[in-house]
Here is the input.
Amino acid sequence: LCFLEVKFKNNKKRTIKKRIQTKEFEERFTSETSEFLNGILPFSADLLIPRLWNDFTRITLVHRVDAERLTIDIGLRFNNDRGEGNVGSLIVGELKQERFRPSSDFIRIIKRQSVRPMRMSKYCVGRALLNKGLRQNKLKVKFKKIQKINDENYA
Here is the structure.
């Protein structure tokens, strides 16, 4: 499935997503996707320039009883006009709940495995990975953790 998605972060640090399904992956906006974008953006969609492509495989697990789902992204790869990159064997798991419940099965399992959560934007990681000129101070700790995960998996 392909979607065009726009994310807004409000002043309460909540992310609001708006998206539409597309027939296929679009390298250029169609009249339908331009109309969608122009209806929600404070500027013209014509001003947008592709900067990063990402690709990954997503597995979605839905809890049978509790109102939560888990997405697992593997094989995360990035490319742009400067090259290609990846984050090795890193697996990105994101638990989506209506309200945070620390008793979630997934939270209990990762705690038993001594896995600690780390907030991460795939877009920001990809931009920093492929654009060495960008300021990366905020991401140094994340890149060190990613490198440690990869070192442990390949040891």
